[in-house]
Amino acid sequence: MQLAATRIITDDVDALVTFYEKVTGITADRLHPMFAELRTASGTLAIASSATTPLLGDNVAHARANRSVLLDFLVDDVDALYATLRVDAAYAALRSDHDVFVNEPTDMPWGNRSLLVRDPDGNLINFFTPIQQAARTRP
Q: Which domains does the chain have, with CATH numbers?
């Protein structure tokens, strides 16, 4: 068995695609106006419109209802990403609709330096760098 993708159901595919393209640097594959995929070597993040949920069954998924799943993205340098997100004008426009930052880059006891943010639908995202790697990139 292989995990093929993680899918987020949303009422605004364009907003989520824009957000994830911006923070990951990956261009989404727009397979349909109601569906997009951001592919990495280790997995795929799929974004689907809430209009697709009736195809899955009655009341099986609701946009903006997630409070238990956290998406983890391994990045080269959490601190550089944080600085970029804070000063980027295009990203600032995204921030106007919601409170993005959950914390500043923080060293976690299990060995990662993490930056927690929320996407436009409120899903929790952890961008992390192993502390040993982060120490090499900090001045």
A: 6-48+69-137 (3.10.180.10)
pLDDT, tens only, 42-100: 999 999 999 999 988 988 999 999 888 999 999 999 999 888 877 664 455 555 555 67
Token digits for 34? Answer: 């109601």
Helix (H, G, I), strand (E, B) or coil at 11: coil
Under 8 Å between Cβ of 96 and 108: no
Q: Are 122 and 100 in contact (CB under 8 A)?
A: no
Q: How far apart are alpha carbons 133 and 6 in whole angstroms?
A: 27
CA distance 56 to 4: 17
